[in-house]
Amino acid sequence: MKLKYILSGVSLALLVAGCYKDKGNYDYIDVNRITITDTSKTALAITIGDSLKITPVVSQSIATNEDSLSYEWMVYDNSPASSYALPKTVISTQKNLRIVVSAPPFTLGQNYRLTYRVTDKRTGVSSAYFYGLTVVNKYATGWMVLEDKPTGGDLSMIMPGGVVERNVYSLLNAGAPIGKPVKLDMTIYSVTDGYSTESKEIHLLSENGAVELNYQTMVKLWDFSYLFFSPPSVIKPQRLFWAMNNTTSPSQGIIINDGKIHSNMVGGFPGTKKFGQQLTTPAGDYNYRAAPFVAGGTTYTAVAYDQIGQRFFNIGTSKLQTFPTVPGALFDMNNIGMEMLYMDTANVTREYNAVMKDAASNPWLLRFKLVVAANQTQDLSLQKVQMNAPGILNMTGIASSTLTPHIYYAVGGTINRYETTSNSTIQKFTFPAGETVTQLKYKRNQVTGSELLAITWDGTQGRVYFFDLNTVGDFTSYRVKYEGFGRIVDIALKIP
Amino acid sequence: MQTRLLQLFICSLLLGSVLLTACGKDDRLMYKEDPRIYFTKFITNPDSIIYSFATGSNTITQDTAWLTFRVIGSAADRDRVIAVHALDSSTAKAGYHYEIKNLFMPKGEFEVRVPVILYRRPGLKDSTLHVVFEIDTSADFLPGYSDVPNPAANKLDRWHYKLTVTDMLLKPSNWDNSLAVSFGTYSETKFRFMIAITGRTTWTGAIYPGDLAYYIQSVKLALYNYEQANGPMMDEKGERVTFP
Question: Is B53 part of a structural domain of the chain?
């Protein structure tokens, strides 16, 4: 009997013990946390044969020395068209990266993801830091100069350090002459066209053809005809333009060939996005001759001008379209009645300056916008003024500023600055006798200051002058000049 | 005392046998797969095919339409038999207007496209015939889903697939709700012209935007050139052929 009580007592004690509250009064031990920082750029353009040095800062939350740390620099091909199954390569196990860029694993033109991992060997806790690498060659950055030489078209490049690389196109593309060049068209945004690797594009247009170059290697990819589902019967390319109705990637391609407009949509949707046949006017005919200029906006992705009908067209994918006619507008986009001499971006995003000539040979400035909210007036016109710009009808070069309200134009050897707000012109610079300006180019740069480039020709050689512009678009003399070119047809800045 | 021992013995025996039964291994409750098969229904592969010999070359005497079957269950390490039969309401005759080839699910596969050979018989010049296939139970498969996945696009469930064959030029079923935006009002003259210019014979299903833009641009240019040479093109109803 007694035993029964004892057993019951013990059982009860055991059950009650289950109710004991765990106070958790034990200590947590802090783990040594690793932090990696790097104040320099994480997107790097690297060149085969060059050294790649990266010195990140590694800090630890507890440990004071780095004896227990291990390091790993791992890289894999991260190009848009590359397979996910490509190998990963450890290129260094040192704290700081010091390597010579070489193949393998690096290949010209490819993008790589570089992962820096630091591990505390005592705990296994690690931290990682990422870099994006693009393998470029020495032609990654610089001003590309398209020249018309007795031997045919060729490219030179003015490198960032001021060195001029000559005959770049013919050196890299022997056996593929481009003929008499007319235009250098480039986009610094990657185009998704469904038939080539997604990339920025360079097109060299010539009198009776064009070539597209690989943006990284500058090697010819294909002829003009390849851009079409079926090429036009007459090939006289004048303009190849990528319009963007957004801020990230081109959405519509425009080709002006022999005065006719071809259009295609590009982007991430399925299928091949080549160019088709020339577009009809809204009336269904082909009676138009497009000026070699294209304007782009968000409401109207791409806009061109017809020199025969003397009107603007909104470029669709199946035809050219009209604009809404707005009573009280400064001008009707569908009926301008003047000849277009020039059109380019104005100093406000999505606003354009068009320099026109009327029937009485007076110059006019038409300013318009291509962005308009659906619930607002559809009037695109902003300004219409007869230009007080001496000699502009005979201009030999012209460039519109995208920061200040100015249009720079050259007549013979003199550069003038026209101000759109005050409708006045100042003569700014005159070149030595015998030198004629053949083109002006405006290079916007809000940080380090914009530049105006003047291309000249004296009958034997072409020169490029760089003028630094101040914040109000003013300049006195040029900073530097480069000489010894053939007759320069066009110039464009290439970035990696 | 003896009774007490006997009781203890019996109790131990009972307890022991109860304990021992716990050591027996129980059969595990396993899912037994029940393979089934059904017709896939996608935007580009809806629940019927309308095939017309008239959009192709005159020299073609036979062509192939495809039935796509998909398995519910695992792939097998052997070919498996699929069974279908034509509904009595079908007007096309098996072996004369059409013939199904290779009706099996290959080993290791979940999906198969089975060819149906269509024959260009003289009677198709003025008539449109059809056959509706229904999935049967076979040695390897039971019929799969019997639902209609998208009532807006599908009239038939996933046990059935309809094949229509003719040698007459038919208005594509997607003309009014899709192609009309790009090509305007349908006429047989216009459709023959579109086929001749673009070379495209199948206009139902998805057409990629880049291709569609090219077709529109091409037929407009071709019609313009035709009109420059011959004047307006008139269709079978006496209306002028135009594109928007």
Answer: yes
